[in-house]
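Please complete every field before forwarding. Incomplete forms are returned to the sender.

SECTION A: IDENTIFIERS
Entry label: holo-85
Bound molecule: zinc ion
Molecule representation: SMILES string

SECTION B: INPUTS
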Amino acid sequence: MAELKCPGCRKEFDNNNPESLVTRGVAAAVCGTAGAIFGAEVGIVGGPIGGIAGTVPGGALGAVTGWFLADQFRRCPHCSKVFKT
Ligand SMILES: [Zn+2]
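SECTION C: PREDICTED COMPLEX
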Protein backbone atom coordinates (compact mmCIF):
# COMPACT_ATOMS: atom_id res chain seq x y z
CA MET A 1 0.00 0.00 0.00
CA ALA A 2 1.47 3.27 -1.09
CA GLU A 3 0.57 6.73 -0.01
CA LEU A 4 0.65 9.51 -2.56
CA LYS A 5 0.82 13.18 -1.83
CA CYS A 6 -1.21 15.48 -4.02
CA PRO A 7 0.89 18.32 -5.50
CA GLY A 8 -2.22 20.49 -5.52
CA CYS A 9 -3.65 20.36 -2.00
CA ARG A 10 -0.79 18.48 -0.24
CA LYS A 11 -3.16 15.86 1.15
CA GLU A 12 -2.13 12.22 1.12
CA PHE A 13 -4.24 9.38 -0.19
CA ASP A 14 -3.91 5.68 -0.95
CA ASN A 15 -2.37 4.84 -4.31
CA ASN A 16 -4.93 2.04 -4.71
CA ASN A 17 -7.95 4.18 -3.91
CA PRO A 18 -10.40 3.45 -6.77
CA GLU A 19 -11.46 7.09 -6.71
CA SER A 20 -7.92 8.10 -7.62
CA LEU A 21 -7.64 5.94 -10.74
CA VAL A 22 -7.51 7.83 -14.01
CA THR A 23 -9.05 6.47 -17.18
CA ARG A 24 -7.13 6.61 -20.44
CA GLY A 25 -9.56 9.18 -21.78
CA VAL A 26 -8.99 11.55 -18.87
CA ALA A 27 -5.21 11.14 -19.06
CA ALA A 28 -5.29 11.76 -22.80
CA ALA A 29 -7.31 14.94 -22.30
CA VAL A 30 -5.00 16.23 -19.57
CA CYS A 31 -1.85 15.47 -21.54
CA GLY A 32 -3.40 16.75 -24.74
CA THR A 33 -4.04 20.11 -23.12
CA ALA A 34 -0.53 20.24 -21.65
CA GLY A 35 0.93 19.16 -24.98
CA ALA A 36 -0.99 21.85 -26.83
CA ILE A 37 0.30 24.53 -24.47
CA PHE A 38 3.83 23.17 -24.76
CA GLY A 39 3.55 23.02 -28.55
CA ALA A 40 2.31 26.59 -28.67
CA GLU A 41 5.19 27.78 -26.48
CA VAL A 42 7.76 26.04 -28.65
CA GLY A 43 6.07 27.23 -31.82
CA ILE A 44 5.78 30.84 -30.67
CA VAL A 45 9.55 31.15 -31.07
CA GLY A 46 8.90 31.03 -34.81
CA GLY A 47 6.30 33.77 -34.55
CA PRO A 48 2.56 33.94 -33.92
CA ILE A 49 1.77 31.51 -36.73
CA GLY A 50 4.23 29.03 -35.26
CA GLY A 51 2.29 29.18 -32.00
CA ILE A 52 -0.86 28.09 -33.76
CA ALA A 53 0.96 25.46 -35.81
CA GLY A 54 2.59 24.04 -32.69
CA THR A 55 -0.70 23.63 -30.83
CA VAL A 56 -2.07 20.84 -32.99
CA PRO A 57 0.90 18.43 -33.10
CA GLY A 58 1.70 19.24 -29.47
CA GLY A 59 -1.83 18.40 -28.42
CA ALA A 60 -1.90 15.21 -30.48
CA LEU A 61 1.44 14.06 -29.12
CA GLY A 62 0.33 14.84 -25.58
CA ALA A 63 -2.92 12.93 -26.00
CA VAL A 64 -1.12 9.85 -27.32
CA THR A 65 1.39 10.04 -24.48
CA GLY A 66 -1.42 10.36 -21.93
CA TRP A 67 -3.24 7.40 -23.46
CA PHE A 68 -0.27 5.09 -22.97
CA LEU A 69 0.77 6.45 -19.59
CA ALA A 70 -2.70 6.50 -18.02
CA ASP A 71 -1.77 3.95 -15.36
CA GLN A 72 0.93 6.32 -14.11
CA PHE A 73 -1.57 9.07 -13.44
CA ARG A 74 -3.71 9.53 -10.34
CA ARG A 75 -6.51 11.88 -9.52
CA CYS A 76 -6.57 13.43 -6.06
CA PRO A 77 -9.86 12.45 -4.34
CA HIS A 78 -9.70 15.70 -2.34
CA CYS A 79 -9.30 18.35 -5.04
CA SER A 80 -9.65 16.30 -8.29
CA LYS A 81 -6.23 17.35 -9.53
CA VAL A 82 -4.77 14.86 -12.02
CA PHE A 83 -1.02 14.37 -11.78
CA LYS A 84 1.67 11.95 -12.83
CA THR A 85 2.99 9.63 -10.12
ZN1 LIG B 1 -5.45 17.32 -3.95
